[in-house]
Specification:
Keywords: Iron, Metal-binding, Signal. Fe cation binds at residues 215-216. This protein is an alpha/beta fold. The chain contains 14 helices and 12 strands. The protein has helices spanning 30-44, 57-64, 78-86, 96-101, 158-171, 173-185, 195-203, 215-222, 224-230, 261-271, 274-283, 297-301, 312-317, 319-328; strands at 2-4, 21-26, 47-52, 72-76, 90-91, 93-95, 114-126, 150-151, 209-213, 233-236, 247-255, 287-288. The strands form 2 sheets. Strands 2, 3, 4, 5, 7, 8, 9, 10, 11 and 12 form a 10-stranded mixed beta sheet that branches. Helix 1 links the parallel strand 2 (21-26) and strand 3 (47-52). The chain is globular. It starts with a strand and ends in a 5-residue tail after the last helix. 48% of the residues are buried. The model is unreliable at 2-18 (pLDDT under 50).
Length: 333
C-alpha cells in the first residue's frame, strides 16, 4: 500500500533523477492524455511511457503478473475501473493529496482507483429539425415520435451500458428493458461508429438526434472538417424523470506490481492538482472532479445541468444486467 501526505504535491517540482519514469497502460486516446503527461514531465522531470490499449487491459496485466512493466492504469467508465479492481491488477493508494482534491463520490471506497474527470452523456440534436424542448428526459427517447430518427454507437459500448445501468437503477430491470427495446425501434440505422460519427450522421440528414459524451463537441470544434458537424447540432442535457443528467468518470489506478511505485504515486497526485485539472478542463473539454476548478468557458456555454446522484459503484454492479438487456433486445442487430 502506498501512502503519502498533502505536502508531497509541493515536492513534485523537486529535481528527479534522469532514470525516473512512469509506465502507463491507457484506454484513453493518446491525444487526450498527451497534454497531461507532457505537463507532468515538465513539472517533475519524470518521463512517461504510454501504451494505448483499446481493450483487454485487465487481461494483459493478469497475464504479465509481477513481470508487468506497467505502473499506472488510465481508463474511462466506472465499470472498466471496477473490473481492474475485481481482476486483482490494482493496489490501494492512501494519499491526503488525492483525498483532498477528489471527492469521495469519485473514488473507490478502498482507494483502488481515483476519478480525475467527469463527463455527461447527453443528446446531440439537429438545429434544423428538432426543437430543444422536445427532449427533456432520457425517457423521452423511447417515444414513437422519434421512430427512425435516432443514431447511436453500439449498445454494448461501455458509455451506453453505463446509461442503461442508470436506467435500471431508476426504473428497474423490466422497465429499462422496455426502454432499450423502444430506443432500438427508433433507430435510423444499426448502431455503428463512435459518438462523433453520430453527429456527422445528423449533419448528413441520416438522423435527427444522437447520444454522445459532452467533450466530443469540443473536439469536433477543433477539427476543420468536423466543425460543420458540430455546428449543425444543439447540446441538450436530458435528465431521468426522477433524477439528473447521467455522468460517468475517467480515472486512474496504480497497478498491483508497479515497478516505479513512488513515481506512479507522484503522477496520480499530479492528476489531482489544480494544474492538471485545469488542463483537463481547457484541453479536453471535460468536467474537473475538483469542485474548485471551473469547466472551460466553451463547456460552460453548453448550459447548466443537475448531475444524477446515483452512486457510481452501483452502476458498475448493474453493468451485467445492462449487457443482458442489450443482448435480449438484440440492440445492435
Amino acid at each position: 500500500m502506498i501512502r503519502t501526505t498533502a505536502t508531497a504535491l509541493a515536492a513534485l517540482v523537486v529535481a528527479t533523477p534522469a532514470l525516473a519514469e512512469v509506465n502507463i497502460y491507457s484506454q484513453r486516446q493518446p491525444e487526450l492524455i498527451a497534454p497531461i503527461t507532457d505537463a507532468f514531465t515538465e513539472a517533475t522531470g519524470i518521463e512517461t511511457n504510454v501504451v494505448y490499449l483499446d481493450s483487454g487491459l485487465t487481461e494483459r496485466l493478469q497475464a504479465e503478473g509481477d513481470r508487468s512493466p506497467a505502473d499506472i492504469i488510465m481508463t474511462v467508465d466506472i465499470a472498466r475501473l471496477s473490473q481492474t479492481v475485481e481482476g486483482g491488477v490494482t493496489q490501494p493508494v492512501e494519499s491526503e493529496v488525492l483525498e483532498e482534491h477528489i471527492p469521495e463520490a469519485f473514488r473507490d471506497p478502498d482507494n483502488q482507483w481515483f476519478g480525475v474527470t467527469t463527463r455527461a452523456r447527453i443528446v446531440y440534436a439537429s438545429k434544423e429539425r428538432v426543437d430543444p424542448e422536445e427532449i427533456t428526459t432520457y425517457e423521452d427517447l423511447a417515444s414513437d415520435k422519434w421512430e427512425g430518427r435516432i443514431c447511436t454507437r453500439s449498445g454494448t459500448h461501455p458509455y451506453n451500458l453505463a446509461l442503461l445501468s442508470a436506467m435500471i437503477h431508476h426504473h428497474g430491470y423490466d422497465a429499462a428493458k422496455q426502454w432499450a427495446s423502444d430506443l432500438k425501434d427508433n433507430l435510423a440505422r444499426k448502431p455503428q461508429g463512435n459518438d462523433r460519427a453520430q453527429v456527422r450522421a445528423i449533419w448528413a440528414g441520416e438522423c435527427d438526434i444522437s447520444l454522445g459524451n459532452t467533450y466530443y463537441m469540443g473536439k469536433m470544434l477543433e477539427d476543420e472538417e468536423q466543425t460543420q458537424w458540430a455546428e449543425s447540432v444543439n447540446v441538450l442535457f436530458p435528465e431521468f424523470e426522477e433524477g439528473g443528467t447521467h455522468m460517468n468518470v475517467s480515472g486512474v489506478a496504480m497497478t498491483a506490481s508497479a515497478p516505479h511505485a513512488e513515481d506512479a504515486r507522484a503522477f496520480m497526485e499530479f492528476l489531482a492538482s489544480p494544474e492538471a485539472q485545469q488542463i483537463y478542463a481547457e484541453a479536453n473539454y471535460e468536467y474537473p472532479v475538483d469542485s474548485e476548478i471551473e469547466a472551460s468557458e466553451l463547456v460552460r456555454s453548453w448550459g447548466e445541468f443537475t448531475p444524477d446522484d446515483v452512486n457510481l459503484m452501483e452502476l458498475a454492479d448493474l453493468r451485467s444486467d445492462a449487457l443482458q438487456i442489450m443482448e435480449e433486445v438484440n440492440f445492435d442487430g
